[in-house]
Amino acid sequence: MAKNKAMAKTMPMRVLEERGVAYDTRQQSRKQLTAQGVAADLGVSVAQVLKAMIVQCSGGRFALVVIPGHQQLSLKKIERCTRRQVGRPGGRA
Length: 93
Known about the structure:
This protein is an alpha+beta fold. The protein has one domain (11-82): YbaK protein. It is built from 3 helices and 2 strands, in the order ααββα. A two-stranded antiparallel ribbon has the order 1-2. A hairpin with a 5-residue loop joins strand 1 and strand 2 (62-68). The N and C termini lie far apart (35 Å).
């Protein structure tokens, strides 16, 4: 588990800890906006980093989605898992 006290815990970190999932955190020298950029900065494969996103579902609920860096978000898969309709860009949930 992460023990770095200087780093504020993010929602994905809290969820992983609640579920007993071990993880490691690493500081980046600069802000990256893509999994590929993070992987390059850390010197690891893109499959070793995670992307965390929050999606809005029907009923005003939200879902935290964490996927491997080399995969793409599938709204249809989220809908199957949550049994809720997921908002689409430019539309409402």
